[in-house]
């Protein structure tokens, strides 16, 4: 059965569109918790869905492990950035295509601790 720490480890990728998601890292950092799984129902809670790559990989992994049902819940859904067909069952708010921070979401490892959700202004975004 999947444990909470395993799920946290499996949910990592790039959210704010700052760096590309590292799905291989995601999969390889999962501990060997997916061996004999019989039947379980999982609701995965995520802060934000961006490209959908993270959850697409995670859902496939969990389904492949024998989940009877996998449901995705996300506070924010940045649909305009989607690269794979991922549809969350439960979402809080549709999010514009901006750099979002706060409530655990960072921009270059900053502003995670803001007690509200904000968008980083263009003049603060590093263009490389
Ligand atoms: O839909 P995707 O494009 O795959 O992005 C979504 C993921 O990105 C964010 O994590 P992030 O990589 O920023 O890690 P962090 O939570 O440690 O900042 C977020 O928490 C999701 O897990």
From TrEMBL:
GO biological process terms on file: GMP salvage; guanine salvage; hypoxanthine metabolic process; IMP salvage
Extent of the signal sequence: none
Gene3D superfamilies, sorted: 3.40.50.2020
Domain Phosphoribosyltransferase: 45-107
GO MF annotations, alphabetized: hypoxanthine phosphoribosyltransferase activity; magnesium ion binding
InterPro entries noted in UniProt: HGPRT (IPR050408), PRTase-like (IPR029057), PRTase_dom (IPR000836)
Gene Ontology annotations for the cellular component aspect, listed alphabetically: cytosol
Top-level taxon: Eukaryota
Sequence segments annotated as region (Disordered): 1-21
Protein name, entry field: Phosphoribosyltransferase domain-containing protein
Higher taxonomy: Eukaryota, Viridiplantae, Chlorophyta, core chlorophytes, Chlorophyceae
């Amino acid at each position: 059965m999947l444990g909470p720490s395993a799920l946290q480890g499996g949910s990592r990728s790039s959210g704010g569109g700052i760096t590309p998601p590292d799905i291989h890292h995601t999969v390889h950092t999962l501990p060997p918790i997916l061996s004999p799984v019989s039947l379980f129902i999982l609701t995965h809670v995520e802060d934000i869905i961006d490209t959908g790559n993270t959850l697409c990989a995670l859902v496939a992994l969990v389904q492949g492990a024998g989940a009877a049902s996998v449901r995705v819940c996300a506070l924010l859904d940045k649909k305009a950035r989607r690269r794979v067909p991922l549809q969350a069952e439960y979402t809080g708010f549709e999010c514009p295509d901006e750099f979002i921070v706060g409530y655990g979401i960072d921009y270059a490892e900053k502003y995670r601790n803001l007690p509200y959700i904000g968008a980083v202004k263009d003049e603060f975004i590093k263009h490389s």
